[in-house]
Amino acid sequence: MRILFLTHNHPALQAGGTEAFAHGLFRALRDDHGAEGLFLAGTTALLREKRPGTLLQAAGTAADEMLVSLDHFDRFYLSQGDVYGLAALAPLVERLAPDVVHLHHPLLWGMEGIDWLRRAAPRAAMVATLHDYFALCPREGQLLTTEGRLCRVPAPDACRRCFPDRPGSDFTLRDLGIRSAFTAFDALLAPSEFLRGRFAAAGWDAARIGVLRNAVAASAPAPHRMAPDGRRDRFAVFGNVNRFKGTLVAMRASARLSRDGVAHGLAIHGGTAWQDDAFLDEFTTALAAAPEAGHHGAYQPDEVAARIAGADWVVVPSIWWENAPLVVLEAFRHRRPVICGGIGGMAEAVRDGVDGLHAPVGDPAGLAAVMRHAAEAPGLWDRLVAGIRPPPDFTAAAAEHLALYRSLIPERRSRRAVRHRAAAHPV
C-alpha cells in the first residue's frame, strides 16, 4: 500500500502531540506493515528558513520524510494563499500515486490544500483526523472565550465576542468554507468520543466521524521511585508551557501547598517557545512564588522515561477541553496515575478513582486540595497504579488504521468508476 501523510509540522522541529502521533503512525505503517509512501510536514520560516528554488527540504535523514515551506497561511480562515506552490507539488504526488492520503491537520495546508490533494490523487481514499477543534473555533481551536470560559458550541454571535472587529459574515464564510472542503474526505476520524460529540453539536454529521484512539511508542515503564516513608508526593507536568495548558494553575497550586506546610515537589517539564512577554512574566512570577516547583525546560521524546522516573503523579492542569492528550498515554505507559480536569477528553481518558483523580479546572485551590489528598491518602497511589491499563502502541494503531484504509480503497474506486461511466454516458 502507498500512503501519503500530511501534518502541519514535523516533530523534529516542534514536538506537538499531533505531529508526534502522525509521525509514529507513519513509521509503524512503514516498518511493521510494509507500507510505502511519503510524510510531508508543513513548515514556515519561523522554524525552518525556506531554501532558494524549492518548496521542499529534507526533514532529516529519512528519504520518505520532507518539509514543505508554506508561509502564506491565514489562520482565521485556515486558508493557504500559495496555491501555485501547492500546484508545484502535484507531480510529486502523482508519481507516488498513493492509495491513501491521510491529512492530520489543516494548519498550513489550508482548505486549498485539501482541494489540491483531491485533484492530485483522484484515485486515493482520503482520510482526515480531527486532532483538535481548529475546524470549529477560530480562536486557535481552543473553544475558550477571551475571558477564559469554556465554549461548548461555536456560533457567529458568540464568536464575535472574541473577535469584535470582525463582521458576523466572516464566521459564516469560515464555517461554510471548511465544511465544504471536508466533504472531499472519504472518512473523518476523532481520537476521542468527546471530540466527535463537539463536532456533532456544531452540526457536523456524526455518522461520518469514526473514533480511533491515539497511541504512544512501546517502551519499558520507568521504575517507580523509592519512597521509604510511603508518601507519594512528587508531581510532574509535561508538555508545552502556555496558558491553555494550565501551567500557571499548577504552580499556584504548588505555592498554596507550600503555604499550608504540605511537603511535595512539582517538576515542570516543557519549553516556553512562542509565548508572549505578558505570559512569560506571569510564569516567572508564579515560579518564584512556588518554592517547591522547578522548571526543567524542553525535552525530547526519548527523555520522558528519565524525567518521569522522579515523579509519582503526572498532573494535566489544562484549562480547556483537550481532546486526547498524549501526555496521559505517556503517563500510563510509565504506570503513573494522572491528576487532570474532569472535563472533555481528559475526563474520557482518565477514570476518576480508578487510574487517576479529577480536579476542578482552572482552580489552583481545588487542584491543591486534590494534590494534597493524593500525597496523604494511605494506599491511594498503589490502588490507582493497579488500575492503569497499558495504552495502545503504534503497532496496534497502525493495524487499526490499515484495516480502515483497506475498507475505503475499494469503495473509493467503485464510486470513481461510477462517476466515469456517468460522465461518458450523460443523460
Summarize this structure briefly:
By secondary structure, this protein is of the alpha/beta class.
Word description of this protein:
The chain has helices spanning 17-33, 83-88, 90-96, 110-120, 156-162, 168-182, 193-201, 247-259, 277-288, 304-308, 326-333, 344-349, 364-376, 380-386, 394-424, and strands at residues 2-7, 36-43, 56-58, 65-69, 73-74, 79-80, 100-103, 125-129, 187-190, 209-211, 234-238, 265-269, 293-295, 313-316, 338-341, 356-359. 39% of the residues lie in helices and 16% in strands. It has an 8-stranded mixed beta sheet with strand order 3-4-2-1-7-8-9-10, with helices on both faces. Strands 13-12-11-14-15-16 form a 6-stranded parallel beta sheet, sandwiched between helices. It contains 15 helices and 16 strands. The mean pLDDT is 94. The protein has 2 domains: 2-215 and 394-424, Rossmann fold, CATH 3.40.50.2000; 234-386, Rossmann fold. It is α/β, with parallel strands linked by helices.
Low-confidence stretches: none
Q: CATH-wise, what's the superfamily of the largest domain? A: Glycogen Phosphorylase B
Overall geometric form: globular
CATH class of the largest domain: Alpha Beta
The proportion of residues in beta strands is: 15-25%
Using only C-alpha atoms, the radius of gyration works out to: 23 Å
How far apart are the first and last residues' alpha carbons, in Å?
36 Å
